[in-house]
Amino acid sequence: MKILDLGSGRRPYQEENAEVIHLDIVKLPHIEIVHDLNKFPWPFKDNEFDKVRAVHILEHIWDTVKAMEEIYRILKPKGILYIEVPIFPNPCCYRDPTHKKVFEKDTFDFFCPDTPLGKENEYCTNARFKIKDKSTDTWGPNLYLTLEAIK
Q: For residue 90, what pLDDT is reported?
């Protein structure tokens, strides 16, 4: 299994029996690829990854639609995208000056054709996902989302 860990920072993800590629905008000892995710296209081949992890990184990217399209492009068919983001009214949405976007619990439904928001906006993007799991917490709040690429 090949996994891309976006925005690894100081907390690199590891998974047993998997090749994990760590990407960030700065070079740290465990970062294999240094790249600004606001610059497209990303330096990966189509259908390269089985899983992409985007843990507290999508709020730092200017163009959410373009980022989701890149993730979709580099995921294999039925590949998994795991997302964690702060959602409104989490004060971190506004407090962190590096955050470019504010999300709410249904923002990513836009990319899921089996949801009302996804049906309404299906002409806006070619990135298509199926929601496998979706939850929020109350202490943030934060959104925890597992999506499967529909190809």
A: 86
